[in-house]
Design goal:
The chain is of the alpha+beta class. It has one helix at 67-86; strands at residues 5-10, 15-24, 27-32, 39-45, 52-56, 59-63.
């Protein structure tokens, strides 16, 4: 199974693909880098819920999706998993 990847914006304007470790509507844990050089980061919703932000090694990273959009993604994924299990 392939790991889920999302694109996050760095504070300097660059876009980076990161691996999702866990995803909930109120917290997304991502891993930046690979193997020994990997760093885990927690992204939490902003006050208005329009994005998720976190900090890794003093740098801010931003995931530009709202908490409701993330919850929709989670629900869609869970529905797909349930559908594939019931088809067996």
């Amino acid at each position: 199974m392939d790991a889920e990847k999302i694109k996050v914006n760095m504070e300097n304007g660059n876009v980076m693909d990161v691996v999702v470790f866990s995803k909930r509507a109120n917290l997304i844990e991502v891993v930046l880098g690979e193997r020994v050089h990997s760093v885990k980061c927690e992204l939490t919703p902003t006050r208005n819920g329009s994005a998720f932000v976190g900090s890794v090694m003093g740098r801010e990273i931003i995931y530009d999706r709202s908490a409701t959009e993330v919850q929709g993604d989670i629900d869609r994924l869970n529905l797909d998993v349930r559908s594939s299990l019931s088809a067996r």
